[in-house]
Amino acid sequence: RVLASREAHAARLLQERVAASKGGNLLVLSHYPTDYLKGRQAGGVDIFSELRNPQVRITYFGGHRHATAGHDSGKAGTESIHPNDNWLVGGGGGWACDGQQGFVVGEVMSSGRVVNLRAIITPDSDCCDVKDTVG
Question: Looking at the whole model, is its pTM more than 0.70?
Answer without folding.
Answer: yes
